[in-house]
Amino acid sequence: MQARAAAFAREQVIPAVDAWEREARYPRAVVAASGLTGLFCPEDVGGAALSYPEGMAVFEELGRGDAALAFSLSMHNAVAAAIAGHAELAAQWARPLTAGEALGGFSLTEPHAGSDATAITTRAEPDGSGWRVTGRKAWVSLAGEADLFLVVCKTSAGPGHRDVAIAAVERAGPGVAFPTLYRKACADFLPIGEMELDGAPATMLAPAGAGMRAALGAIDVARCDIAAIAAGLHAEALDVAVAYSGRRQAFGGPLIDLQAIQFALADVATDLEASRLLYRQAAECLGTPDGPVAVAHAKRFCPDAALRAAIACSETLGAYGWLLDHPLARMIALAKMLQVVDGTAEIQRVVIGRSLSSRSPRG
Ligand SMILES: Cc1cc2nc3c(=O)[nH]c(=O)nc-3n(C[C@H](O)[C@H](O)[C@H](O)COP(=O)(O)OP(=O)(O)OC[C@H]3O[C@@H](n4cnc5c(N)ncnc54)[C@H](O)[C@@H]3O)c2cc1C
After folding, report:
1. Residues 224, 228, 230, 233: what is their CA dihedral angle, to the nearest 10 degrees?
2. What's the whole-model pTM score?
3. Dihedral angle sign, alpha carbons of residues 196, 199, 202, 206
4. Rounded to the nearest whole angstrom, what is the distance from the C-alpha of residue 45 to the centroid of ligand 1?
5. 333 lines ligand 1 (CB under 6 A)
């Protein structure tokens, strides 16, 4: 699967991403044909049944291709894995999701509630045998494009997270609308925007009481994906800079023979080694009590390191680093995106800081 992801990034993504950007169109058929849409699902529903460390190796390769496409596949794979674990939803959706015929989206953020996810107000209410969901979601990736959304919601009007639940809502169902798509610094092919739910019919995936734990578990996997994607972007940026500075002549020789260039790229290479160690360690810890903090270290470090790398590598190209003919200008914007998606660097520091505080002697 790692080799398949590497070939997909090299042959299907890198040569095509400029055209996707110009057309502002999500490459649905390319994604469906990738064979990378059921990474963590069991084989009996068409999945690849990868372990987390194996899956993260796939995401590093995808990060080399395009971090925004890789992010959409991270979200889709998280949704597919969750659906595969729910008998009723799996019967209808698991095979289309693992085959990439259907796409999955995850809606947690609301216009007034980002990092503070406990402030969400989207409400699920029972309706005979099912549920109806009402509220407004923000920053919905694959808005209008995904077929099934996992919507994090509350089952009462009270404060706190005890009644947080996760409901599955079909894009094509009644009461579902996508009124606004955002204009973004890059990734025009990935539709992101608001989602309006007005009594939308839903199937309960994780009921009140289990919803917050399920969401946090899925977000930990997604954060590890993002750390691996960041390492892939970082590795690709370094390869572009090494190749360019070997070809570019200045002052009687190739740029890469200048020690100032070597030193800049040496720091990028050291950071890449650290990023790989961190996300691989986090992948080994997923699902254990050490998981959340290990993931927070990786999600905090890897996108920051990738952003530093994209800037440093762009500088080795001089003016050309600024042109869209080279991938580095885009990589800077994408690394910035990776810092925010699935929880900002500050929120990772909150997780790490709390664990330090909990082991500090008091009084
Ligand atoms: C490209 C992209 C795609 C996305 N896709 C999705 C999606 O598909 N589904 C979805 O649900 N969400 C999605 N998001 C939303 C994303 O998860 C949120 O943007 C993120 O959680 C941060 O929330 P916010 O933007 O509202 O920032 P805020 O929570 O308003 O934070 C603003 C700033 O304050 C800082 N801050 C907040 N709280 C603290 C604290 N306690 N201590 C220190 N600093 C703090 C933050 O780090 C940040 O710098 C996406 C975001 C992006 C950029």
Report:
1. -160
2. 0.97
3. positive
4. 33
5. no
